[in-house]
Amino acid sequence: MYSQSTVIAGGLAHIPVVIGVFSFIQKYFSKRASNFQQDTEPKKSQVKNIEKKSDPKPAPTTIPADTTVVKKKHADVPVNIYRPKTPYEGTVIENYSLLKEGAIGRVNHITFDLKDSDPFLNYVEGQSIGIMPAGVDSNGKPHKLRLYSIASTRHGDDFNGNTVSLCVRQLQYEKDGETINGVCSTYLCDIKPGDKVKITGPVGKEMLLPDEEDANIVMLATGTGIAPMRAYLRRMFEATEKEKNKWNFKGKAWLFMGAPKSANLLYEEDLQRYLIDYPENFKYTKAISREEQNSKGGRMYIQDRVLESANELFNMIEDEKTHIYLCGLKGMEPGIDEAMTKAAEEKGLNWSELRPQLKKAGRWHVETY
What we know:
- About 30% of the residues lie in helices and about 20% in strands.
- By secondary structure, the chain is of the alpha/beta class.
- The protein has 3 domains: about 5-40, no CATH class; about 90-205, Beta Barrel (Elongation Factor Tu (Ef-tu), domain 3), CATH 2.40.30.10; about 215-369, Nucleotide-binding domain of ferredoxin-NADP reductase (FNR) module (Rossmann fold, 3-Layer(aba) Sandwich).
- Helix 7 (about 300-310) runs parallel beside helix 9 and helix 8 crosses helix 9 (about 330-345).
């Protein structure tokens, strides 16, 4: 029978390992290997780029954050208080157009009364509710519910905590030479104060704001994609809202807003007021596609504004406290992705590697439809 010291020495010279001490040797070398790796390799959050003397260009970098960080779970977020089989019938309080003269299409701000809901239909910023339009489809079955991003804070537009608001664009498209109106969006744009509407939810945890008061919030929105952004900004900057919250925003909020015409910009008066009242905390960048041109002479889209602001934007993204929110039509995603790729390259970053890192850390939030 070999002694342990003899086995180890013999094992280094001869590949076969004595079965009786295999476990000991395995643990020994595993521990040595682990210690060696810890002593010789920097932690992920401390990795620095080393520039080769023979290569004048810096190597691509990654976000200087711990890539092992997983997004934090939000506590006490209400979900599915009301379901399709047992919806809440809310009363319409108001329904008015958000567009100015000369705008394209139809966009309305609609508010529902929740005070009679039992259990109470509470929600937080960044969530959605479902709407079940009245009537039946061509097969005689009830219409399926549609989800809409909530445009109000948890305290509602009048801060009494008993309402929820939506920002709804009437869907219209051409088919065989005929204009087709969206079922639920038309239903919502047509309802009157006093009408009853079946509501489900709330749902969603993807678009929630971080808990940190000094977080930075980058918002990329087109059209009614501004709905959750409006809720965020009201929570951050409305005086009465700030009084009610135990959350006092101290970071920087930057809204990139896309619209076809100036008359289609939504909640513009509020946004201009925030600019005046909080110039150090709020930045607002617009892209008006039918009124402005990009550097190539084409229409100005939100992705063009992202490219123009690449350096400043990615300086913010490199900060671990920065969250990015994207909301609007699904068709905006490829353009934003292309713009972020180019913008990242200007900073020596690889967007295809960076985006999954941000997603894993809970800093990249997308809601498109």
